[in-house]
Amino acid sequence: MTHPFFLTVAYAGGGFHGWQIQTSLRSGQGELWKALCAFDPEAPMPQGTGRTDAGVHARAQGVLIHTVRAWEPYRLLAALNAHLPKDIRVMQARPAPEGFFPRQHAVAKRYIYRLGLGPAEDPLMAPFRWHLHQAAPLDLAAMAEAVPPLLGTHDFTSFRNSECAAQTPVRTLHAIQLTPGDGCVDLIFEGSSFLMHQVRIMTGTLVEVGKGRRSPESMGAVLAAKDRSRAGLTAPPWGLCMEKVWYEARWGMSDPSPWGERD
Known about the structure:
It is built from 6 helices and 10 strands. It is of the alpha+beta class. It folds into 2 domains: 3-96, Pseudouridine synthase I, catalytic domain, N-terminal subdomain (Alpha-Beta Plaits, 2-Layer Sandwich), CATH 3.30.70; 105-244, Pseudouridine synthase I, catalytic domain, C-terminal subdomain (Alpha-Beta Plaits). α1 (28-37) crosses α2 and α4 (140-146) crosses α5. The two termini are 36 Å apart. The relative contact order is 0.18.
């Protein structure tokens, strides 16, 4: 008999070759499993909610683990963190109901892409923002104007990496918000799920709109083309972070999704 626990895991992605375990490269899943096996050698591999690319950060990677012995949640959290390196941490641990699987039961995710603006890159934020060196200010109004065609359920082939293994390119995008700050702007993407590099390609394309290299009105045609070459560059990974995941309400693992549970 094993004991299931649900963990909320955060990591700074710069030191990882993504979440998924690798044969010889460092990964979030691999580091967590190593820490768990340090005091529970029979524990199976932790299972995450979703993959993150090499260099992408996470504030709320949901992870299911099984332990051989029963644990008080805080003691389990402390034991795992004692064996983890400082660039990955378990932020919350709680018992999980039997039958809950984070990947299968996730219904929506929030990713934030952070852009740095201004004449010089902030050295304290450089690992977590894509700094745009520019002579003219980024046109945020034009970027916001380009957003509406992307919302809803569409074939996102134009914003999909050629190596994406998803069975279908159809996804539902609930919201994109642009939130300006002091020397920065956050692009907040919320959707049912995302294709490989989808958020990074959408970000790169919106940045081209903000720089005046393509018109806001062109976004609908880019989407309709179902052709990756019609979209913009793929933004670098270090500006992207998995911020929040909503799960089916029946499991009690998150607050209910604002958009319901299924497309």
